[in-house]
Specification:
- The chain has about 90 residues and is an alpha+beta fold.
- It has two domains: about 50 residues, LysM domain (Membrane-bound Lytic Murein Transglycosylase D, Chain A); about 45 residues, LysM domain (Membrane-bound Lytic Murein Transglycosylase D, Chain A, Roll), CATH 3.10.350.
- It is elongated and about 40 Å long.
- A two-stranded antiparallel sheet has the order 1-2.
- It is built from four helices and four strands, in the order E-H-H-E-E-H-H-E.
């Protein structure tokens, strides 16, 4: 895992930073202990993960995604720091 320190720019949102750096939102929020939106000048940690990403499809859950990807549910939980999956969520596996 590569750790990058990023200074939040004016207009940055959690979603835009995650999209720009191709990281899952849930992991970013957990890594930075975020409770609210970002503010200009804030320094945040971006952990660039090794591996592949997958975007959760409609009606999928942790069990179906793990089976589809051929990985353990615990691997998805550990890499993404969440066990709650929803449509459109990008996860690492």
């Amino acid at each position: 895992m590569e750790k990058i320190f990023y200074r939040v720019q004016k207009g940055d949102l959690i979603t835009s930073v995650c999209l720009k750096h191709d990281i899952p939102i849930s992991r970013f929020i957990k890594d930075n202990n975020l409770k609210e939106e970002l503010y200009e000048g804030q320094i945040v940690i971006i952990n660039k993960m090794q591996g592949k990403t997958y975007t959760v499809a409609p009606h999928e859950n942790l069990k179906t995604v793990a089976k589809k990807l051929g990985v353990l549910e615990s691997e998805i939980i550990e890499k993404n720091q969440t066990d709650y999956l929803f449509y459109g969520l990008k996860i690492w596996y």
